[in-house]
Amino acid sequence: IALVLSLTLANLAVGFFASNRHRRQVQELFGAYVPPAYVERLLEDPKAASMEGEQRTMTVLFADIMGFTALSEALTTAELKSLLNRYLTKVTEVIFEHQGTIDKYVGDMVMAFWNAPLDDAQHAQNGVLAALAMQQQTALLSEEFIKSGLPPLKIGIGLNTGPMNVGDMGSHYRRAYTVLGDAVNLGSRRESSTRFYGAKILFSDSTQAQ
Length: 210
Description:
Helices cover about 55% and strands about 25% of the residues. The chain is α+β, with helices and mostly antiparallel strands and about 210 residues long. Strands 1, 2, 3, 4, 5 and 6 form a six-stranded mixed beta sheet that branches. The mean pLDDT is about 85.
């Protein structure tokens, strides 16, 4: 009887610590990158998303502030920090509202994607709707900036849909849940082309097809 009780307690302890370890992994990996509702779903269903690398059809979005170098040179460090933080907070809220995952911020550049870690059958539509909402919110934010004595913002957004490699990638020192592949690079080039064409949003034919 003592042996049975000991084994039962041991199994319960192992299950408890394994569950806690999984929760920590999910929260550390996805907590800052996906909508809170996504995190809850991932915690409730450990099999909902794979920590391993995989290839799937996804939609990626790149957004960049136009003329950011000249804009940053005209502001103090405190003004630039305030402007960027307010802008990045607002566009991140929009991406989360449209079920997107934040990949990274690089200066003023925002990269996001759809259809991972959780499945999203409407990933192309959600990406385009997010882009439209980001432009609307940036226009509203610019009105607030002008009243505060800060310059208005104009952003260019590029999207592409296609096969991408997604997963927890990096080194022993730092890892991130990110996407890689030619389809990702094409999304970045779409964003760069917004300046050439004078367009606010450019997306590929593959995104349009979905």
